[in-house]
Specification:
mainly alpha; five-stranded mixed β-sheet; 5 strands
Amino acid sequence: MKKKNVFIQAGFIAFLVLVGALAVYFLIFNLGNIVQFIKNVIKIMAPVNIGIALAYLLNPIVDFLNGLLLKWFAHTKLQLKTRKKIAKGLSVGLALATLVAVVVGLLYTVIPEVIDSIQKLIPNIPAYGDSLRSYISELFKGSEEMEETVQNAINTAFGSIEKWLKNDLLGEFQKIIGTLTTGIYGAFKILVNIVLGLCVTVYLLLSKQRFIGGFKKLLYATFKKETVNVFLAVGREADSIFGGFISGKLLDSLIIGILCFIGCSIMKMPYIALISVVIGVTNIVPIFGPWVGAIPCSLLVLIIDPGKALVFVIFVVALQQFDGNILGPNILGDSTGLSAFWVVVAITLGGGLFKLPGMILGVPTFAVIYFVVKTYVEFKLKEQNMPIQTISYTKIKRIDPETFNSEYINTSMSKRDKRKNNVYVDDVSREVAIAARLARSEREKRDGVFGPVVVDNEEGNSEE
């Protein structure tokens, strides 16, 4: 009977291996079709995706307004259930009205100004080039080689800028505007997606507790309680990281754009709306974004009015310092928990894989992965009664698996002397070790193979 069960188990495992191999084969040779299918599903689900994204962004505003309205309604004679329903409905309505007002304001004020600035800029580029060349000639007067080199560089730069403005930037704007104004089918489809997305947003915001409860119910019915608890803890941390970073970064970039507009208006810079939008939008990308926006804007000011270029550069640098040291930390705080090194890695990897969306979402995504790995490592260390602080492991040479004694590298000697004399500092186990020295048998074994182990005591004396 036992042999029969063994054969059945072996046959079942072989069947699963065969199914897995066929699945991998199918995925490899049909990867293009699978990717296209996923793209089609995402395209079909565009209204739902829009609704989920808007609901997630508006949720903090809805929660704030809901709490405020509940306080106001607390002094009324309405029942608690009625107060909650009215407060929730009003908070969702006010949040959507705010969103619509911001979008309409951008469509009717900022975007037309930006398009008008680009359209005026393109035909004036040759005149701006002549003005800059004259300025350079006066600046490098008497040095023909330097002047010629700079002039050639300017000609190349102007050709690239003009090509980019005509073919890329203005072309994309005209394509979008043309879709919205002349493409009846395209405009209707976009309008339908937006309307359906807003409907999904309203439904999600009004019924978010029911959706959250149903999702938790499904998880607890399907998996072990411990697994679900871990999953929910990671979900809460991910929500905190994503919500704090995205909403904070959008608010921070909006403020920087407004401050740039005010400062440029005071200094009477050219193409104020265009420069402010570029500075504000590129500020969404951490670390690199502010400078990616500042460089072309500085070049634009240099081309049009060289005398104001230095003032603009100083203003932008001061603005970015204010954002990086005062405004950003107060709005974002330590929402990601990542060091500058990991932020650069996240932006580079995300931008390389998914372009601009990857550069924006790469940081919070990487922060969630970092949190999961960090939590797992700390959990496994606690199981072994070991410290979780990284600094406790910086100078560890080895930890004995049986006695948990730790050997630390002696920093008072040169590397050559340490290798020659086999000297280690034996820590008295503040956190990692639980014994003062290696077991006698271990030391005798080491003495026989490597020579005597020299240990530095706390007074700095060496003893054998």
